[in-house]
Amino acid sequence: MHVIASAPGKAILFGEHAVIYGKPAIAVAIDKKARVKIRQRMDSKTHVEVHGLGISEYLELENDVVQEKDNNKGILDYISKSLEKVNQLSELKKQNGLDIIVDLEIPIGSGLGSSAAITVATITALSFYNKLELKKDEIANYAHQVELNVQGAASPIDTTLSTYGGVIYLSRNSEEITHLPLNWNPSLIIGYTERESNTGKLVESVRIKKKSYPSIINPILDSIEQVTETAREAIICENAEILGELMNINHGLLDALGVNTPELSRMVYLARKSGAIGSKITGAGGGGSIIAYSPNKIKEVLRELQRVENAFIIKLSSLGVQMEVGRT
Ligand code: MEV
Fold first, then answer.
1. Catalytic member of 31, 158, 222, 255
2. Atom of ligand 1 nearest to the CA of 285
3. Which contacts of 121-124 are long-range, i.e. CB under 8 A and separated by 24 or more positions?
């Protein structure tokens, strides 16, 4: 038997970094997914394969805990910790090993939630395989714990989007999730650089700045909160002009936090020059992606961004994590 779970990536519209400090955020699930297949093996080993990235490795398990290896980095960390989490929850004694096979449509390190999508899909597939009937809020919660464990600091925004899909407003201190209207297609474009973003390092750099200059950085985080709250109203009232302007303001505030790069800046301004009414870094920054909002000139903005970096139009995904069951 095999089981397959797929979970969408995400793009943050408002509030990245500030969300780490309990501020609200707004993000959308995108039509690019991580797909994780779990298959029983004839031996007792656990093997992970990530198609397209050349990863093919055995995980060493002792008492259901994955033994750290020097090369056990990146994607493998999220998968190992997800396996550990499900092993802790499962009372079934496992006789056989597992093949864990990952297919990824989301560019890695692009700020588009590849690690959250892999984590949510892995936990969902493993829990289904182990006959644990986890509810969506449990999946989101365990996936967030895995992200915290691997990254050191993480808000629940990425794992929430990968679990539930749609357009989500995460309230102050992540107390409440509200689904916002989904009528944005097709007006959002992603531009991403080859330079990977390291969320853990970027989050840490903002933490150090906040500690060094609290009287400067705290008001910036408060301003991002106000931008997000105003954007929520603008989304509900479908006020495109205000939304675009708020994205531009949010970009300036992220720049002030020190997470911009020359490549991201170039794309942000090129998008505006070619017709986007709003454009900003999306995700952690320091590499990764920008998002441009262009209800009227989508093709022009896409063409210009593709001249300098990778770019694609995103379709929003109303679906969160999904299961498939099959036989091999
Ligand atoms: C990463 O997609 C968004 C950050 O705010 C980190 C997080 O929320 O965990 C930078």
1. 158
2. 10
3. 121/5, 121/6, 121/7, 121/33, 121/34, 121/35, 121/36, 121/162, 121/321, 122/5, 122/36, 122/78, 122/79, 122/82, 122/83, 123/82, 123/85, 123/86, 124/5, 124/7, 124/36, 124/321, 124/323
CA of 72 to the centre of ligand 1 (A): 22
| CATH code of the domain occupying 2-180+317-326 | 3.30.230.10
Residue 20 CA: nearest ligand 1 atom is 8
The CATH T-level fold of domain 188-314 is: Alpha-Beta Plaits (3.30.70)
Could you tell me if the CB of 291 is within 6 A of ligand 1?
no
- Is 19 in contact with 32 (CB distance < 8 Å)? no
Q: Which of 10, 13, 14, 19 to mutate to test the pocket of ligand 1 (most atoms within 8 A of CB)?
A: 19
Interval 194-222: pLDDT, tens: 888 888 899 999 999 999 999 999 999 99
pLDDT in tens, 65-118: 665 554 445 889 999 999 999 988 887 666 679 999 999 999 988 999 999 999
Can you tell me the distance from the alpha carbon of 303 to that of 185, in angstroms, rounded to the nearest whole number?
Answer: 18
158 is catalytic: yes
